[in-house]
Write a structure and sequence with these properties.
single chain
Length: 211
């Protein structure tokens, strides 16, 4: 149910813009019902599109995660991994994060925070798409009532959700970095275990083939 609500948010933001330019879509009870059903589906599509953009720009291994920088520049070198790259730092984080020894309370909190961040940002994207839809529709001949007010509403929603995503992200980055200090021994243990791991998948396959 919670996922349905979160997927409905970006869908509703964009649906408002579409209905603004095509009010006939909800003239009848049946069309109104279909529109309501379509909202979470539309939202899911927007959310997945944002996830694709997120993954294409670094995903969870992005350079802006201080915890990965700390693992790469401090923890890994101190525990036998010289010239640790970002991908290996991410593997150290993930392997430690999902280990039985890592506190499940922080893991659940972290995953929930990432869910909020991606949901806020996908809703901000929906607002950008909605404002653009209204603007383009107006330019090509559609004359929705009060277009300026709807555009401003979409822009305002986009700003609010983008800021919520930004501040949640900044807070989580500090918490993740703190976790690498609080549970240093776990990250150090993983680093030591991954010393012999090849730097690339291809290298791993070649190494396995020679054994």
């Amino acid at each position: 149910m919670e996922n349905l609500i979160w997927f409905s948010a970006p869908g509703a933001v964009l649906a408002i813009a579409i209905i603004c330019t095509n009010p006939g879509l909800v003239k009848t009870d049946v069309s109104g019902f279909l529109a309501a059903v379509a909202v979470p589906v539309l939202g899911f599509g927007i959310h997945q599109f944002y996830r694709l953009l997120f993954e294409m720009t670094g995903g969870f291994a992005r350079k802006s995660r201080p915890a990965l920088k700390h693992i790469q520049n401090v923890i890994a070198p101190e525990n036998g991994i010289e010239n640790c790259d970002r991908e290996k730092a991410f593997l150290i984080w993930e392997t430690t994060f999902y280990s039985d020894e890592f506190p499940s309370s922080f893991r659940d909190h972290n995953r929930g925070a990432w869910h909020y961040i991606l949901s806020f940002q996908s809703t901000a994207l929906a607002a950008v798409l909605g404002a653009s839809w209204i603007g383009v529709s107006y330019c090509i001949g559609s004359r929705p009532s009060h277009p300026a007010e709807f555009v401003l509403g979409e822009v305002a929603a986009g700003i609010v959700f983008a800021l919520k995503g930004h501040y949640t992200y900044q807070s989580l980055m500090k918490q993740e970095l703190a976790s690498t200090f609080a549970w240093y021994s776990l990250f150090a243990k993983t680093s030591e275990a991954l010393q012999e791991m090849p730097d690339s998948f291809n290298g791993s396959m070649k190494s396995a083939a020679h054994k």
